[in-house]
């Protein structure tokens, strides 16, 4: 929960199977601690994916439902872009890890964000810092670590849980890997992306918006294979 440009409180769900049942109660508890009601909210920012199918789906459905019932705007931001901006935001999740303090040279490098998609697969995108934000060099896509390293990619830092999982291959190819929580989406990251782009409009028709899963779920792929 943020007031102005500052995150005031947060909650973390560490049991993926319980996201559907625990998310709304956690939101209510955070608002209660602040002495607020849902009707006090001015808007919601949600990570649009990719990531865990269940987590992305639950977050999107909850955000859409709340915004429609409260009549407030909804902003959707790429979860990979939120991971990229994590190097720039300084919240509790980063300041507790002094080993992640980076040089100005490292901060200026492109950031290749990888989210683990199991086995050798990852969700990936690359961003470069520019004045007042990030520029997308490689758009979000599903790929393998081998395909990424076989490409002609710029000197960059790899971040995200997918980068950590495949750190041996990445470092063996001559690239650096920065450890978590750098590379992971956070409340600070989502807020920073909207704050840096005040002209970024909220979603138009909330009911028509769907998150960016990038690739079908395991169940969908299995169903297609049986046709």
Automatic annotation (TrEMBL):
Residues 18-154 form the Gcp-like domain. InterPro entries: ATPase_NBD, Gcp-like_dom, T6A_TsaB. It holds the Pfam family TsaD. GO terms for biological process: tRNA threonylcarbamoyladenosine modification. SUPFAM superfamilies: Actin-like ATPase domain (SSF53067). GO terms for cellular component: cytosol. This is Gcp-like domain-containing protein.
